[in-house]
């Protein structure tokens, strides 16, 4: 069958190289085009990835391990203040916890 001019047929993959004319483009046609090309779901899929990563058991176990390691480091820092560059180590933990 012939493809519709404004989008793709169901089941077709989006064509990133397809040229789209802005002539007679209304907001409604633009929204239809976004949906038909599958572009509207990309942001939701990205949010879904980060949310699922954050809620995964392995990620939570890793973060719990880092929290425990940080507690040990804090204890060592108190007992052995001149042993290591504690500020650098603390800042590494800070970056990881902030990015979480």
Kindly name the structural category. Answer: mainly alpha
Rg, nearest Å? 25 Å
Rounded average pLDDT: 79
Following the backbone from N to C, one meets helices and strands in this order, namely HHHH
Shape descriptor: elongated
How many separate helices?
4
Features:
single chain; 100 residues; mainly alpha; 4 helices; 0% strand; elongated
Kindly describe this structure.
With 100 residues, the protein is mainly α. The protein is built from 4 helices and no strands. Helix 3 (57-79) packs antiparallel against helix 4. The longest helix has 23 residues, at 57-79. The protein starts with 26 loop residues before the first helix and ends with a helix. The relative contact order is 0.07.
